[in-house]
Automatic annotation (TrEMBL):
<protein>
    <recommendedName>
        <fullName>DEAD-box ATP-dependent RNA helicase RhpA</fullName>
        <ecNumber>3.6.4.13</ecNumber>
    </recommendedName>
</protein>
<feature type="compositionally biased region" description="Basic and acidic residues">
    <location>
        <begin position="473"/>
        <end position="494"/>
    </location>
</feature>
<dbReference type="InterPro" id="IPR044742">
    <property type="entry name" value="DEAD/DEAH_RhlB"/>
</dbReference>
<feature type="domain" description="Helicase C-terminal">
    <location>
        <begin position="234"/>
        <end position="379"/>
    </location>
</feature>
<feature type="compositionally biased region" description="Low complexity">
    <location>
        <begin position="452"/>
        <end position="472"/>
    </location>
</feature>
<dbReference type="InterPro" id="IPR000629">
    <property type="entry name" value="RNA-helicase_DEAD-box_CS"/>
</dbReference>
<feature type="domain" description="Helicase ATP-binding">
    <location>
        <begin position="32"/>
        <end position="205"/>
    </location>
</feature>
<keyword id="KW-0378">Hydrolase</keyword>
<comment type="similarity">
    <text>Belongs to the DEAD box helicase family.</text>
</comment>
<dbReference type="Pfam" id="PF00270">
    <property type="entry name" value="DEAD"/>
</dbReference>
<keyword id="KW-0547">Nucleotide-binding</keyword>
<dbReference type="GO" id="GO:0005829">
    <property type="term" value="C:cytosol"/>
</dbReference>
<dbReference type="InterPro" id="IPR011545">
    <property type="entry name" value="DEAD/DEAH_box_helicase_dom"/>
</dbReference>
<dbReference type="GO" id="GO:0003676">
    <property type="term" value="F:nucleic acid binding"/>
</dbReference>
<feature type="compositionally biased region" description="Basic and acidic residues">
    <location>
        <begin position="417"/>
        <end position="430"/>
    </location>
</feature>
<dbReference type="InterPro" id="IPR001650">
    <property type="entry name" value="Helicase_C-like"/>
</dbReference>
<dbReference type="GO" id="GO:0009266">
    <property type="term" value="P:response to temperature stimulus"/>
</dbReference>
């Protein structure tokens, strides 16, 4: 099947050729003809499958006729995060080079004024996160009664992030006669219910099993002690040992750990940025652009911030924490090994991670091999007891390629000790992983690297070298707030340490005084 068979306009076909695509991906081949027939579509597909073009290409074709009116967008695309929304805009820019369409991005964290001006000019395509869209609506700057086509993208993520009530409100504001395209990577019962509610006689298209991981990804578990400093130490050695590391995404379960780990790695000489929901939009954009351009080869991220990001060639994914939700594992490691490329995914596993790990292996339907022996081997070496000495093991599950992948470089500048550790754990000159991920850092003496002592960075560190220091966004409704809280405990990023119940340990004195009830005369 070729793009020409799908019914797309000539202008769109030219843009597709210019983008270098030779044939449609399965989701595109299945969905585009139905979209052009103005059918509702329920698309079950993950990011990385070409699903964005599956709706942007036919939308461009359909929008060639007609004109936008002030404050009344013709089409509306809802995305759960700002980054995903921005990515959809990039798609319209890429495929819409031959069109003169007004595309507006309505997301939180940036000023209303520019967005108001864009809406006033008339919008063919409005791409928005739900919270900011409702803000504009409530301020009277937007009417949704002209929407002919509605796209709800990443519906399962919308659910996780607590956006469903907002989505339900928005859907009530768009005409009943609209066409609706609904995409989700997974179809839990609540999403099925929404699909039933929002879609009229939809065409269901589905690609790849939602729980599948790409076969091009080498997945390994890495045994580690459970203390933060032990995990950071293990991660550093892992990164330095990866000779083929071009760029890597490092996932943490908690936002605060993202910031902490980024600072720690930076202080150890790695060129690393951070991406999490508490950073303001500018800092998020800088971090992401730096990583995308290759300027910053390592990015520490939280699940919500990194979900669905299209970074085509990520060589490595490191799970600093085993994700609590098994589907997050699939999403995380899906950042690497895209489009048939080779990818590597390492997951640090400590004691207490067994249940999460078991859930992941059940979901993906296969056991994940250990890199250097499991946790019992770790106990033998004493590392689990907090002794983070570089381990010496000849055994590897990565096969014959392993020795070649490991650098045998100098040890004086690294944490790997000469002759003691695996070659790759020395910070070697030949190690591309070490070299590319590290900025020019002062060589350290071995005494500074006494592993039992926490690295200098792990005390509060002032500023990150690459990413702008994370700062809190101005609190506002919509995405910013939702990214922080999430309803009913579903939100992945809410797990930010113990939250005091009620007033916590502190109860003001006036509340402890006995209540005096006066009797009425
Ligand atoms: P998405 O799933 O929309 O995030 O797309 C993932 C990546 O696939 C993006 O980098 C697209 O540019 C790319 N892509 C989309 N359609 C095609 C295609 N037909 N052929 C090759 N690459 C594509």
């Amino acid at each position: 099947m070729s793009f020409a068979d799908l019914g797309l306009s000539d202008k769109v076909l030219q843009a597709v050729t210019a983008a270098g695509y030779t044939e449609p991906t399965p989701i595109q081949a299945q969905a585009i003809p139905h979209v052009l027939e103005r059918r509702d579509v329920l698309g079950i597909a993950q990011t990385g499958t070409g699903k964005t073009a599956a709706f942007t290409l036919p939308m461009l074709t359909m929008l060639e006729n007609g004109r936008a009116r002030a404050r009344m967008p013709r089409t509306l695309i809802l995305e759960p995060t700002r980054e995903l929304a921005a990515q959809v805009v990039e798609n319209f820019e890429r495929y819409g080079t031959n069109h003169k369409l007004n595309v507006a991005l309505i997301i939180g964290g940036v000023s209303f004024a520019d967005q108001d001006a864009k809406l006033m000019r008339g919008t063919d395509v409005l791409i928005a996160t739900p919270g900011r869209l409702l803000d504009h609506f409530e301020r009277g700057k937007l009417l949704l009664t002209g929407v002919e086509l509605l796209v709800i993208d990443e519906a399962d993520r919308m659910l996780d992030m607590g956006f469903i009530p907002d989505i339900e409100r928005i859907v009530k504001m768009v005409p009943f006669t609209r066409q609706t395209l609904f995409f989700s990577a997974t179809m839990p019962p609540e999403i099925e219910r929404l699909a039933d509610m929002f879609l009229h006689n939809p065409q269901r298209v589905e690609v790849a099993r939602p729980a599948s991981t790409a076969t091009t990804i080498v997945q390994r578990l890495v045994a580690t002690g459970s203390e933060g400093h032990e995990k950071r130490d293990r991660l550093r050695r892992l990164i330095r040992g990866e000779a083929e590391l071009n760029n890597g995404l490092i996932f943490c379960n908690r936002k605060r750990d993202v910031a902490l780990l980024q600072k720690s790695l930076a202080s150890h000489g790695f060129n690393v940025a951070a991406l999490h929901g508490d950073m303001d939009q500018r800092a998020r954009t800088i971090a992401l652009d730096g990583f995308r351009s290759g300027e910053v080869p390592l990015l520490v991220a939280s699940d919500v911030a990194a979900r669905g990001l299209d970074i085509p060639a990520v060589s490595h994914v490191f799970n600093f924490d085993v994700p609590h939700h098994p589907e997050d594992y699939v999403h995380r490691i899906g950042r690497t090994g895209r489009a048939g490329r080779a990818g590597n995914a390492f997951t640090l596993v400590g004691r207490g991670d067994d249940r999460s790990l078991q859930a992941i292996e059940t979901l993906i339907g296969q056991p994940i091999p250990w890199l250097d022996g499991d946790l019992s081997a770790l106990a033998e070496s004493g590392e689990a007891e907090g002794e983070t000495r570089t381990r010496h093991r000849g055994r590897s599950t990565r096969g014959t390629a392993e020795p070649a992948r490991r650098s045998r470089g100098r040890s004086a500048s690294g944490e790997g000790r000469g002759g003691e550790g695996r070659g790759g754990e020395a910070r070697g000159g030949e190690s591309r992983g070490g070299a590319s991920a590290r900025r020019a850092a002062p060589e350290r003496s071995r005494s500074e690297e006494v592993e039992a002592a926490p690295p200098r960075a792990e005390a509060p560190v002032s500023v990150a070298p690459v990413a702008a220091a994370p700062s809190r966004s101005r609190p506002e409704r919509g995405e910013d707030r939702r990214q922080d809280r999430g309803p009913r405990g579903r939100h992945r990023e809410e797990d930010d340490g113990a939250t005091p119940v009620g007033l916590g340990a502190h109860v003001p004195a006036f509340l402890l005084r006995p209540a005096v009830v006066k009797k009425r005369k």
